[in-house]
Design brief:
The structure is a homodimer. By secondary structure, chain A is an alpha/beta fold. Helices cover 42% and strands 14% of the residues of chain A.
Chain lengths: 420, 420
C-alpha cells in the first residue's frame, strides 16, 4: 500500500524547514501491496536497550542485580574495547531488532568511544533510527577498576568526543545521547560535568533512575535526597531526558520529572527482576510524566517490544491486584493500576516517541513513516482470526499478544524497507 | 540421534506387563541426526488447557474474570454443541500445540459429550498424549442457562458416558479425566456425584481450586469451609487430581492436598490476570505438594510452555520482591519465593508428569520418549550462542528463555515424530 501522504523523515526539531531531505525521500517512495489480514502498525520505539548486553540476553536472570552486573555484565561490556568484536555484535543486534519491529532504539552503548561510534555506524547502515550513548562511569566503588573512565574529566571529555563522533556519522536518523550509567557508577564531578555538557550542547540525556530499593537507599545515603532529586540538581533531568525504570518515584518526584519535561522508559519485564516493584504507569501519566516502553535488553529477556506490551499489561495487573495471598485484598495491590493492550501499544509507539521527541510513533501525516506490517495468517504462527468471533478490536489484541518476529513481514524506517 | 534405550510408551500404570505394545514400538524406532548446537529436551507437559478457548487466545485480558467468562468464554464454549465447528478447532489446536513442544496436554473440553470425544480423537490422530475431560457444570447461578448440564444427575451421567467414549477412542495415550469446572459452577449434588464416579472408576479428576479472592470468598460463604476443603469433602481431591491455580491455598490446605497425593497446575501468566495473587511454588513443594505448569489457554495468552517457564520465573521474582513501591521492602513481598529457569523447566516436564502420573517428563530409560529438539542457530531466531561467553548452562537458559515455536525443529511422542 502507498500512504496518501508523503513520508517526512528527520529527527530535526524543525523538520518542516528541510525541503531537500523531503524531496530525497519522496523519490524513494515505493508501492508495497499487503496481503489481506495484514496489520499496518507504527514501528516500535524501544527507549532502553543496553546494546553490549545482546550476547547475554536470556541469561543470569535468577541473580540479584549486583551479581548480575559484576559477574555477567561488566566483564562482557569490557570486551567492547575490542572494536572488531563490537562491530560483529552490532551487525547482528541492529538488523535483529529491526526485524522485530524496533524502528527506533535508544541505546546505552559501552564505555568505549570507538565501539559507540561503530554502533552509530551500524544503525545508519542498517537503517535504524537511534539515539546512541557512550556510557559514562567513573565511580571507584560502583564500577570495576578494569571497566570505567579513568577520571571524571576524562569521562566528560570522552562523552563530548562521542557526541561529535556520532554526529560525524552523518545520518539524520542517528543522534548522540549523553549517558551517565546511574548515580552509583558516577562521581559527583562526572554527573556535574555531564549536566553542564547537556546544557551547553542541548543533547538529550538518559540514565537509570530510582530503579530498586538498593538504588534509592544508596542515593539517599550519598546525596541526602532522592535519586531523581539528585539527578535534577546535577542538571540531568531536562526536556526529553529518558529516565529508565523510575518505579520508586514518589508523587513529588513525578511532579519534578513532569515539570522538567523529562520522561520514563518503563521496562516492565526487568521491573520483575531488578526493581523490587512495578512502575505505576497510570499514576505517572496522571502526573503529566511522559512514558514509553523499554525492553531493557538484557535485564529484560524479551528483545522485541510486542513482548514488552504483553509484559506491560501483565505487570500492571499484578500491581493492581498484588501478589501475596497471605495479605488481605485491600492491602495487597494498588487500585486502578491496570492498563490494556491498546494503552501498552500506545506506550511502545507514540508514548515513547513523545518522551524522546522524535517525529514517529503514529502513522499520520506530519510524521515519518516508521512502520511495520504484521501477518495474521502465517503457517506455524499463533495468531488465528475466526469468522464470526474476531472483530477488528480483538484481531488487534491478538496481533499484539501473539505475533512473533516471524509474523512481522515488513518493517520501514523513514519509508524505507529495513527488514531483510 | 538414537537413544540407547528403547522407547517404552504407555500410560498404563503397569507398563512392564505389555510386551506386545513394546514390540510394536521397537519396530517404529527411526534414526534422526540432530545438527550440532541443537538441544534435545523432554517434551512439555501442559497441565491446564481449556481447549475450546483456543479461538479467543489473546483477547479480553483487560477484563475481570466474571466479564471474561460471561462475555467471551461461555458464549464461545457453547458453540461446541456444533461438533463440526469443534472438530475444526481441534484439528488446528492439537497440531499447533504439538509444534510448540506440548507433548502432553491436560484438557478441559467443553460441556458437550460429542465435542469432547472429537477432541480425544484429534489427540489420537495427531499423536498427542492427553487427558481429556468433558466439563461438568450445572449451577443455576454460576453458569448461563444456555450452557450447562440440565441437572446434577444428567451431568454425572454425561461425565460417565464421556469416560467411556474417550476410552473407546482406543489410544493408550489418550485417557479421560473427570472435570467439574469449579465449585461455583457446580451444585453439591454434581460435585458429590462426580466424587463418587472418581472413586468408582479410578479415573483422574481435574478442577480449578482457590484461584481468586472471589472464588475463595464464594466457597467460604457457600460451604463454610475453604474451597479445597470442600472439594476434598466431595471426594474430588484424590491421588493425581490436578488442581489448577490454587494460589490461595493456606499451609493447612497444602498439607491436605499433599496428603491426598493431589497436585497443582501452576499457571503463572493467568495468576497475573485472574488470581489476585501468585502461587508460591517453593512453599508448595516444601509442603510435599506436586507442582507442574499450565498455560491456562486462554486465560494465559502464551500457548507454549517455554513461555510458561519464563513467566513462572518472572512471577516468582515478583512474589519474592512485591510490587507496590509505596510499601517498605519487608512488607512488600514473600522472601524465598523465587525459582530459576532450571526449576521452571523441571515443573514443565518432570513436575507435571509426576502430578498427572504419566511416564514422561524426563529423557531416561524407563520413560516414554516424549521429547523435542530445539535449534539454536535458526536465521531470524533470537537465540545466539557466543564463543567464549556461553557455556552449556547459559546456552540452556537461552533456549528456555528465547526459543519460539519456529526454533523447535522436532517433536516426538512415544518415539514418533509429531511435528509436521
Amino acid at each position: 500500500m502507498t500512504p496518501e501522504w508523503s513520508p517526512r523523515c528527520t529527527t530535526d526539531p524543525t523538520p518542516r524547514e528541510r525541503p531537500a531531505a523531503q524531496a530525497a525521500l519522496d523519490s524513494a517512495t515505493e508501492r508495497v501491496e499487503l496481503t489481506p489480514g495484514t496489520f499496518l502498525m507504527p514501528g516500535l520505539v524501544d527507549l532502553h536497550i543496553h546494546a553490549p548486553q545482546w550476547p547475554q540476553l536470556g541469561t543470569g536472570l535468577d541473580l540479584p542485580l549486583e551479581r548480575w552486573l559484576f559477574d555477567y555484565t561488566f566483564p562482557l561490556e569490557a570486551r567492547y574495547a575490542d572494536t572488531e568484536f563490537a562491530a560483529a555484535v552490532w551487525d547482528d543486534l541492529v538488523p535483529s531488532l529491526l526485524a522485530m519491529g524496533t524502528t527506533t532504539a535508544v541505546y546505552f552503548s559501552s564505555n568505549h568511544l570507538e565501539a559507540t561510534t561503530a554502533l552509530a555506524r551500524a544503525c545508519a547502515r542498517h537503517g535504524q533510527r537511534a539515539l546512541v550513548g557512550r556510557v559514562a562511569m567513573d565511580h571507584p566503588d560502583g564500577t570495576p577498576e578494569w571497566y570505567r573512565d579513568a577520571t571524571a574529566s576524562a569521562g566528560v571529555e570522552a562523552s563530548k568526543a562521542s557526541i561529535e563522533a556520532v554526529k560525524a556519522v552523518g545520518s539524520r536518523r542517528v543522534e548522540p545521547i549523553i549517558t551517565p550509567r546511574f548515580a552509583p557508577a558516577c562521581t559527583d564531578a562526572l554527573l556535574e560535568g555531564l549536566g553542564e555538557l547537556a546544557a551547553a550542547t542541548g543533547v538529550r540525556v538518559q540514565t537509570h533512575c530510582a530503579e530498586s530499593d538498593w538504588h534509592c537507599d544508596y542515593a539517599l545515603d550519598r546525596f541526602g535526597v532522592s535519586d531523581s532529586t539528585a539527578l535534577n540538581r546535577f542538571g540531568l533531568v531536562r526536556p526529553h531526558t529518558v529516565l529508565a525504570h523510575s518505579d520508586h518515584l514518589t508523587a513529588d518526584e513525578m511532579a519534578i520529572v513532569a515539570g522538567q519535561g523529562a520522561g520514563v522508559a518503563h521496562c516492565p519485564l526487568s521491573n520483575a527482576y531488578f526493581a523490587n516493584a512495578v512502575f505505576g504507569v497510570r499514576k505517572a501519566l496522571a502526573a503529566g510524566v511522559g512514558v514509553g516502553l523499554g525492553s531493557d535488553i538484557a535485564g529484560g529477556a524479551r528483545p522485541g517490544l510486542l513482548g514488552g506490551c504483553q509484559d506491560a499489561v501483565t505487570v500492571s495487573r499484578m500491581l493492581e491486584d498484588g501478589v501475596d495471598p497471605a495479605l488481605g485484598a485491600p492491602q495487597r495491590g494498588v487500585p486502578e493500576s491496570r492498563i490494556d493492550t491498546v494503552a501498552a501499544l500506545w506506550l511502545a509507539t507514540a508514548g515513547g516517541a513523545a518522551v524522546a521527541d522524535l517525529p514517529v510513533g503514529l502513522i499520520e501525516s506530519g510524521r515519518c513513516f516508521d512502520a511495520m506490517a504484521v501477518r495474521t495468517d502465517r503457517p506455524g504462527g499463533a495468531i488465528r482470526l475466526w469468522d464470526g468471533i474476531d472483530d477488528e478490536a480483538r484481531a488487534f489484541e491478538k496481533v499484539v499478544r501473539l505475533a512473533t518476529t516471524d509474523d512481522i513481514s515488513h518493517v520501514w524506517v523513514d519509508g524505507k524497507s529495513v527488514k531483510q
